[in-house]
Every structure is written in structure tokens, then in C-alpha cells.
Amino acid sequence: MLSEAEREAQRLQLEMAELRKRLEECERLPTYEEAPEVYQRLDELVVAYLRLQMESGEICPTP
Question: Which of 2, 18, 52, 55 counts the highest number of beta carbons within 10 A?
């Protein structure tokens, strides 16, 4: 059975993977000026994921 932290980590990993897939589907990566919301959300997800790792004391690879 997964802990709440593990479920949240999985959710964050999935959301980051979805954003990466959206970026990879582009012929070129959009600049920050062209898609600031994508980069801001990715930053938020990475920070949340790292914070979750630190709080849980678990070491997980950053996706």
C-alpha cells in the first residue's frame, strides 16, 4: 500500500512527464517568453517533488 507521500510523488512524476511530452512534441522548445506558464508549472512541480523528498526522508530520482 502506498503512503500519501508516495502517491503524491507519483502524481507529480506523471504531471512532469506530461509536460515533458508536450515540450518534446514541439519542433523546437518554446522560449520562456512564448510559454511562461509551461516553465512556471514545471518549476513548481520540481520544487514540490523535491520538497516531498526532503519531508519524507526518502531519496527518489528526480524525473
Answer: 52
Each residue's pLDDT tens digit, 4-54: 878 888 888 888 888 888 878 877 778 889 989 988 988 988 888 888 878
Distance, first Cα to last Cα, the chain: 22
What is the DSSP secondary-structure string of 42-53?
HHHHHHHHHHHH
For 1-63, where are the alpha helices, taking DSSP H only? 4-24, 36-56
Measured CA to CA, the distance from residue 45 to residue 39 in angstroms comes to 10
pLDDT value for 52 = 82
Distance (Å, whole) CA 5 – CA 58: 10
Every domain of the chain and the residues it spans: 4-56
